[in-house]
Amino acid sequence: MCSDIRAFQAKCGGAVGNVKVRILIPGVAWVGTEVTFEIDDVPYATTVVANGAGTNSLARFSLEGFGPGDHVVELVNPSCSNFGPITINCPSPNLAMEREWAEYDLQMGFRDGDFADDQTIAGENGSIPQETTLRGNYPNPFNPSTTISYALSQNGFVSLKVYNMLGQVVASLVDQNQAAGSHTVTFNASNLPSGIYIYDLNVNGQSIARAKALLVK
User: Residues 82-93: pLDDT tens digits?
Assistant: First the structure.
């Protein structure tokens, strides 16, 4: 089961010491499965894995009341040796901010921050995806950034642009040749107003799919 997990993530919000945890799993095979995390050696059972954005599913939960300082988050059920404990830092309660995700990723290992732009992740068991698909974005709604996922069944020239509701291009996220595999890219909308944005995946001159992202500030 552990080989199905794409990433294990945690972060802390400053205003109320709100610890958030999630795991991301491609596909829907895990939907309905219960996952357990520990925070500071205390086990917390999540809700069951649910459908997420696009073709991803996810398990997530949020708990309040953690004081400032470091807290250790661990995935304990299933017990996965490829994901070690994550240490997150909750800021002082007077700082009404959410820190970026600290995460374990199957390919990149531990690092701080959100998914890197144009991070490539192998398909299940290292296989190449059978179809070229736009998998959606998470989180959605979002503020100010969200991660868009897509899969390429073969090498090709990829263009991924974001449009406002007037049809104007507000961001060009990808414009280059890419290898077959699963990819993510971050859309940062910190300089854009709240609203609905449309992103379009184009491969070798052909529009594959479009999807909507809701920015709420």
Answer: 777 888 777 665
